[in-house]
Design a protein that fits this description.
With 540 residues, the chain is of the alpha/beta class. The chain has eight helices and 22 strands. Strands 10-15-17-16 form a four-stranded mixed beta sheet. It has a four-stranded mixed beta sheet with strand order 11-20-21-14. It has a three-stranded antiparallel beta sheet with strand order 4-5-6. The radius of gyration is 28 Å and the shape is elongated. The protein starts with a strand and ends in a 41-residue tail after the last strand.
Length: 540
């Protein structure tokens, strides 16, 4: 057997059981990749299902993780052994179920009293009742876990226990997973790679011969990262890369490890974004420019988040009665405006005019041609790292036709006074996330700095391909329109999406709307890097 990155089990020569990873060598997707106190699994951020539940409901039995083969588990250093609490034994040794329960449950808590939880749905409890949470559908205990995710995975493998909640299944119960490759060397003519095992600390990394690593994607990433680093060491000048070196320099190996960790972090972030989105289009994440990872203080939302003290009251109590919404008494006509879309569901009104869509009280169905923005982004988009100092950007993965709805701009709704205070901080940081809702008045502002969706990452351009429109659906409060971005021309797949942060409507209305990102805040002028022929030089 050999260490596989495309699935498969087995044993062979060398150290550590034969690892098994995700199909096609994808890393960072399977449960259990976190370390230390990181707990990415489970529906609750603080309380999640312990491995002891599997121990109580399924029972032990069977050998350890490496039994039946000639390859023991990856080694653990003495420091790691001393760090483990009593009851956690080293690889290759047996751990009684009693010790497993002691590791997972706080002192004084009882154990499970039912064996039915293995076949019944997993339902988390509230933090206030985490010690004892029984329901009619499942009799399970939920406790704050005393051990790290890696430790629980190790204990399950030693006891031959399966626990899907922490990623221990039939496929990987008796095998280990290659997370990424860290280093390279040649010893007596044999090529070796330093392997980081998924679910194990870096102190347990082992050198494995190339013949045992049938993982083309991970090897490709390793070589690509090495060549990328070597090509940059002389300020971007091309550098001949030797294919046969005896060892990598520490700086090169360090870069490769950081790049592998970044790749895993971005993969987790991508999965998180796609779990939280409520629209059809997929969200991808890409960074081939630097080592920047996911933003640390950003939370994905799908609609406005009112700040404390701001009450958003939906004023809709009635809807249209028409079955064919282009009729004369549909919602836009009742508001005194034209229907915004044509029969092909493309925008037909000029910039500056509002969009009134059918609401939840209307009798028309979901296929109504006047329900566009409320369905969310229909296109697959990619958040990518720009190579000219503009940070993150957004590009489309599909062709977008002219006058098509692309995305909605959402964030935290704050007062104008609070926006002025935050604006001073953002100006000093060189960021622009404040969008004034000044269609009817200038009372509220949308702040997408910490809370937002994909639009948070859309960059400015003086020659944009997106146009801003005010939309009213379930809330007719003119102070709180929804902000929708529509394409101004055909956008090719792979092209970056942009809008003008100082975009002005082309029609004079009774309002003073400018449909832009806080144009009144001009304390610090920000240099524009859009690169357009008609670039104004500054964002404000």
């Amino acid at each position: 057997g050999s260490a596989r990155c495309g699935g498969g089990l087995g044993v062979g020569a060398g150290r550590g059981p034969v690892p098994e990873v995700n199909p096609a060598g994808r890393v960072g997707e399977a449960p259990g990749s976190g370390g230390g106190v990181r707990r990415p699994l489970g529906p609750s951020p603080n309380f999640w299902r312990c491995a002891a539940e599997a121990a109580c409901c399924r029972g032990g039995g069977g050998g350890g993780a490496g039994e039946g083969g000639s390859r023991p588990a990856p080694r653990r250093e003495p420091a790691q052994e001393s760090a483990a609490a009593a009851g956690s034994l080293g690889p290759g040794s047996r751990l009684p179920l009693t010790a497993l329960r002691q590791r997972c449950f706080p002192r004084g808590s009882a154990l499970l009293r039912s064996r039915s939880v293995a076949q019944r749905p997993f339902k988390p409890s509230s933090p206030a009742r985490h010690r004892r949470s029984f329901s009619k559908s499942a009799s399970a205990w939920y406790v704050p876990c005393l051990a790290s995710l890696e430790t629980l995975q190790e204990l399950c493998r030693k006891e031959n226990l399966r626990c899907k909640s922490i990623g221990i299944t039939n496929r990987n119960l008796k095998s280990y997973e290659v997370e990424y490759l860290c280093d390279y060397k040649v010893d007596e003519g044999t090529e070796y790679y330093l392997v980081k095992w998924k679910g194990w600390p870096e102190s347990s990394n082992t050198w494995e011969p190339l013949k045992n690593l049938k993982c083309p994607l991970l090897l490709q990433n390793f070589l690509s990262d090495k060549n990328e680093y070597l090509s940059r060491v002389k300020e971007g000048k091309a550098l001949k890369v030797k294919n046969h070196v005896k060892a990598l320099k520490p700086a090169v190996a360090d870069y490769i490890v950081k790049k592998a960790k970044q790749r895993i972090a971005l993969q987790r972030w991508k999965e998180e974004l796609n779990r939280k989105k409520n629209h059809k289009g997929m969200i991808l994440v890409e960074n081939t420019v630097d080592l920047e990872g996911p933003p640390l203080d950003f939370y994905y939302i799908n609609e406005y988040k009112p700040a404390p003290g701001i009450n958003v009251i939906n004023g809709i109590t009635t809807g249209c009665e028409c079955s064919d919404c282009p009729a004369e008494k549909c919602c836009p006509k009742e508001a005194g405006f034209l229907l915004a879309y044509n029969k092909r569901k493309k925008l037909k009104i000029q910039p500056g005019l509002p969009i009134y869509e059918c609401n939840s009280y209307c009798r028309c169905g979901p296929d109504c041609p006047n329900r566009i923005v409320q369905k969310g982004t229909p296109y697959s988009l990619c958040i990518f790292r720009t190579n000219n100092g503009r940070g993150w950007g957004v590009k489309t993965l599909q062709k977008i036709k002219t006058n098509s709805f692309v995305m909605e701009y959402v964030g935290e709704v704050i007062t104008s006074e609070e926006a002025e205070r935050r604006g001073q901080l953002y100006d000093n940081q060189g960021n622009t996330y404040l969008f004034d809702l000044d269609y009817d008045s200038d009372e509220f502002t949308v702040d997408a700095a910490r809370y937002g969706n994909v639009s948070h990452f859309v960059n400015h351009s003086c020659d944009p391909n997106l146009q801003v429109f005010n939309v009213f659906i379930d809330n007719l409060d003119l102070r709180l329109p929804r902000i929708a971005l529509f394409s101004t021309r055909t956008i090719k797949a792979g092209e970056e999406l942009t809008f003008d942060y100082q975009m002005k409507g082309s029609i004079d209305l009774t309002s003073d709307s400018t449909d832009g990102l806080s144009p009144s805040r001009k304390r610090i002028r920000t240099v524009c890097k859009c690169g357009a022929v008609c670039c104004r030089g500054y964002l404000n």
